[in-house]
């Protein structure tokens, strides 16, 4: 049996996608809308505090296209906290005007292919990558993926050595995008319907297409990658929420 990759696991992660029921939002009184926005801002202020104390992180993006209107990406040390956050939002006034469209549960993951020989508890770089403060870059892209298990193309039947070589080549392509695209890989085996969530951040949205396209030609993705739906969107700053919800 091939040796399983050891994973380093960090903060738990919830991607929560919502659409807005604009019809009922428009029917609400302006007082109601104002208090819904105010309450949402208070929730975010709490998340900001948590982030300042490095006890978690979050990012809000509006989503382009009909799959959702916005995404809340939340990182916390425990699954319980994710659940509390989700429930608190669901009880809020604003949630009455949102329709859940998709969610993804995972945990920040670094695989052992390239992180060998470091002490995870003390290595500051590893710690920062396992508990990342999300970059509030202008664009985000999210999609779930699997590694294929089909006939001759079964990632999980490859020897560790072969997988490491393939992952090295994957990493080399990725590195050419250093400073342009930041990736956060979250593992979701046992948590959600796919094996990983891929979250990318960029200053130039076109870099997502360039990176993902280039990777399609690399063996890891070309032969072994299976992909779910893609979500892409723009940073939603706290200050811009009233404008976003203005009707
Ligand atoms: O973590 C590292 O930086 C080391 C190298 C590395 C690993 C181990 C790395 C680098 N990735 C790793 C693991 Mn990745 N990555 C993806 C996708 O669309 C596609 O074709 C695939 C989706 C992208 C776009 C991407 C980008 N990576 C993984 C894993 C876990 C695999 C496993 O354990 O079997 C997945 C699913 C995955 C998928 N990767 C990089 C990038 C980029 C941009 C880098 C360079 C990061 C950097 O050097 O800063």
From TrEMBL:
Fe-coproporphyrin III acts as both substrate and redox cofactor. Pfam families: Chlor_dismutase. It is an enzyme of class 1 (oxidoreductase). Pathway: Porphyrin-containing compound metabolism; protoheme biosynthesis. Fe-coproporphyrin III binds at residues 129, 143-147, 170, 183, 221. Its cofactor is Fe-coproporphyrin III. GO terms for molecular function: oxidoreductase activity. The active site is at residue 143. Its EC number is 1.3.98.5. The keyword Oxidoreductase applies. SUPFAM superfamilies: Dimeric alpha+beta barrel. Coiled coil: none annotated. Belongs to the ChdC family. Type 1 subfamily. PANTHER family: COPROHEME DECARBOXYLASE, HEME-DEPENDENT PEROXIDASE YWFI-RELATED. Involved in coproporphyrin-dependent heme b biosynthesis. Catalyzes the decarboxylation of Fe-coproporphyrin III (coproheme) to heme b (protoheme IX), the last step of the pathway. The reaction occurs in a stepwise manner with a three-propionate intermediate. This is Coproheme decarboxylase. It comes from Thalassobacillus hwangdonensis. The lineage of its organism: Bacteria, Bacillati, Bacillota, Bacilli, Bacillales. The gene is hemQ.
